[in-house]
Amino acid sequence: MVTKKQLLLVIFGITLLLVTGCRRGQTSDISDIGLDLSISPDPPTTGPAAVVIQLTDEAGQPLAGAKVELEGNMSHAGMTPVFSQAKEIEPGQYEAPLEFTMGGDWFILVKVTLPDGRQLERQVDVPGVETR
Amino acid sequence: MSSEMIIQLNEKPRRTKFTAGDILTWPLIGPFLRWRYSRRVMQAGLLLLTGVFVFDGLVGPVQAPKNLATVSAWVHYRGLVVLALLVAGNLFCMACPFMLPREAGRWLGAKLGVQGNVPKVLRNKWLAALLLVVFFISYEYWDLWASPWLTAWILVGYFLTAMVVDTFFKGAAFCKYVCPLGQFNFFGSLNSPTEIKVRDAETCAACRTKDCIAGNRQTGQRGCELWLFQEKKRGNMDCTFCLDCVYACPHDNIGWQVRLPLQELWFDPRRAGIGRFSQRWDLTALMVVLITAAYLNAFGMITPVYALQQAISDQLNATSELPSLLVIFGVGFFIVPVITLAVTSYASRLLSGRSREPLGLVVRRFTFALVPLGFGVWLAHYAFHFLTGGLTIIPVTQSFLNDVGIFAGQPQWQLGQVVPAGWLFPLQTIFLYLGVFGSLVTGFQIAVHQYRDRHVALRAFIPWAILTILLLLAAFWIMLQPMEMRGTLFIGL
Ligand code: SF4
Ligand code: SF4
Ligand SMILES: [Cu+2]
Hints:
The complex is a heterodimer of chains A (132) and B (493).
Chain A: H1 2-20, E1 34-40, E2 47-56, E3 67-74, E4 82-85, E5 87-90, E6 93-100, E7 103-113, E8 119-129
Antiparallel strand pairs in A: 1-2, 2-6, 3-4, 3-7, 5-6, 7-8
Chain B: H1 3-11, H2 29-34, H3 38-59, H4 68-87, H5 91-94, H6 99-112, H7 126-141, H8 148-168, H9 173-178, H10 180-189, E1 194-198, H11 201-206, H12 211-214, H13 244-248, E2 254-258, H14 281-299, H15 303-316, H16 322-352, H17 359-367, H18 371-389, H19 393-403, H20 421-451, H21 454-480, E3 484-485
Antiparallel strand pairs in B: 1-2
Helix pairs in contact in B: 3-4, 3-8, 4-8, 4-18, 4-19, 6-8, 7-14, 7-16, 14-16, 14-18, 15-16, 16-17, 16-21, 18-20, 20-21
The complex binds iron/sulfur cluster (2 copies) and copper (II) ion (CU).
One iron/sulfur cluster (SF4) is lined by residues 92-93, 96, 98-99, 162, 174-175, 179, 181-182, 185, 240 of chain B.
């Protein structure tokens, strides 16, 4: 019976590890950088959309000269993601086209490379994209 | 018979020659499957994979489309299972990874001496039907398809349940009375083109030991755990394709044979381990749950359902999603089927002129005719997900391997569709037409075998034919609605 106890202990240990363990694929963020995302049309519908991202630095000033990439995904498994590269249209303001290929819940991963080389990734949820 | 002779019989079983209609005689696959440990190998392989999926689900990316747990469970498992049932048989149960914890539980239970028989009240499909209903509601409420973490815990819970149930109960208690996946497979395998069955009836008639059910004392191979005695086994219901009977039979008289799909539903014999279909409310209820769920599960992902949910929530002044879900599922699972089946049966009985037949009997007899259409709807739905997203497993696996330190190249995120988008609708249509064709033939055959007189049979069949067509239209309506895959984003950790 001692062996059973030990077994339980091991199982418990593994479970604890799994529950508390670090997750891979966690987005890396720099919290001081401000990121504002808006989509037109608003509310978003299926089909082509334009995504505008405003970046601000630690002092709240527009952050120019960054490289901004987008990845759009659905909240459920089995859909191909859509990628897009943003262009700076004004200092600190970046615009990218993105195509919502199906109605439902989406999220956009914004990957930013700052002029100084630091990188950050942030997830913005876009729930309820309506079917046109 | 002296023991020497018996051993001889066991050592040199009559080798059955190649027959196209018997998969166990095919080259390569035949010898592999006839090897007693082939199933262990398949189970171990799937167990290993499941372990990887659970690991990724618990510690991997929180985003469902990037996690192996969600992609494998909701895109691949479901799609491949229905396709396998359509073209082959109950292949999942054959290779089921949950068999290993079951065996562990059995071993533990025997060691601790706690194994008993399943109580009589539980020796039916009611519990399994209830579990399925609970599962389908949870699926919508917790948006399981969007949560790798919950998906992984479901897998873990499944393992533990299989183990615990078989620690305390003898036989294949879990498979026969509990396992929701198994019940789905049993339901689907009624439509399959193959069956594990006796090769030559005379050999069975002459057999004294009946090892296929009693177990083979020479080799220690157990007989059928699901109490399907081959001589009286008819069809695929409750058969896990485990091949225990094949290994047990000392005369090599059981094969995995090609058959006419659905034919087993046309007759209503007393089946080993099951009895007559038409005498079992529990089995009928299980079929109703699975047929209805095919519709509700597909209905759950189209645009109108959200408007409906909103309307119900407003009406009830509810802030949570649960009340509206319970209303939709309550109506869908209970009220609509009860009324529809009662009305159709009543009309059928009226037209057949057999007014003394109990209405319940008519319900139980003809509900099985709707199985093919229900299966067709499952096929259309799950094949859709598989065919649109099947290849996403490649980049997701690549990214998993990269993250655990095995370089697998740049993930090919552009991969997704298995077939061109233009094929999807035609394929779904074919599945639905196959289903409706199967249902019409089955309904008519049930009537013919029941009423003998063709005119009476035809009249009894008409209401069921109308119901089948209406159900087909409902399936098409759902399919033509815009898809909207919603759910709360990223619950879990
Ligand atoms: S019934 Fe369930 S546990 Fe049994 S073999 Fe099938 S899937 Fe596995
Ligand atoms: S032993 Fe029973 S469940 Fe297994 S294949 Fe034979 S009949 Fe089917
Ligand atoms: Cu779906």
